[in-house]
Amino acid sequence: MPSRKQATVDVKELAKEGRTHIFNLMKTAQSKIHLSTDIWSKKGLTSSYLGVTAQFVVQREEIRKKKKVTKFYIEDCVLELIEFPNPHTGIRIAVELLRVLKEWKIKDDRLGFILSDSGSNMVKAFKEARTMLEANQEKNSNATATTATSTRMLRARAAKCEHH
């Protein structure tokens, strides 16, 4: 049985390998990358977590009855699952979502929808993220395509939330 120190090293290495695997899968996605996010609180509100998952289609070649067949599969990957203590404000959620987009290098031509519940903090998060992205675009006239598309997506999400 490995020591606690060795187990920690092993878990970190597995996490790094898993992250690389997800990056590689997302590079080969045949669809846009769609995200879903939610916050879960432990009973008694002693701790809470923010999760972000990605869903996308990948293509695989398989051999069936001695013939090469192309198959398409939906991948569902956990990108982030972090402790997210109170307060669960829209600004804090927006900052975290923008960090995830940047860290996972989800660019404009790859980003699909972001799905969440319609809690007031999530609605506020999309509005705040849109504002932050627009402010960043104004500061940097060479804004990346990721920022432009993220802004369009967040505008659409915020507009949809305003109608509910």
What does this structure look like?
This protein is of the alpha+beta class and 164 residues long. Helices cover 46% and strands 29% of the residues. It contains four helices and four strands, in the order αβββαβαα. It has a four-stranded mixed β-sheet with strand order 3-2-1-4, with helices on one face. It starts with a helix and ends with a helix. The mean pLDDT is 84.
Helices and strands in order:
Elements (H helix, E strand, L loop, with lengths): L3 H24 L5 E9 L6 E17 L2 E17 L6 H14 L7 E5 L4 H20 L5 H18 L2
Parallel strand pairs: 1-4
Antiparallel strand pairs: 1-2, 2-3
Helix pairs in contact: 2-3, 3-4
- Arithmetic mean of pLDDT: 84
Distance between the termini: 55 Å
Strand order of the largest sheet: 3-2-1-4
Total number of beta strands: 4
* Helical percentage: 40-55%
SSE pattern? HEEEHEHH
Per DSSP, the total helix count is: 4
- The proportion of strand residues reads 25-35%
Low-confidence stretches: none
Going by helix content, strand content and strand pairing, the class is alpha+beta
Largest sheet: 4 strands, mixed
- The value of Rg in angstroms is 19 Å
Shape: globular
Give the tally of structural domains.
1
Pick out its properties:
single chain; 164 residues; alpha+beta; 4 helices; 46% helix; 29% strand
Q: How would you concisely characterize the structure shown here?
A:
The protein is an alpha+beta fold. The chain has 4 helices and 4 strands; from the N terminus they run αβββαβαα. It has one domain.
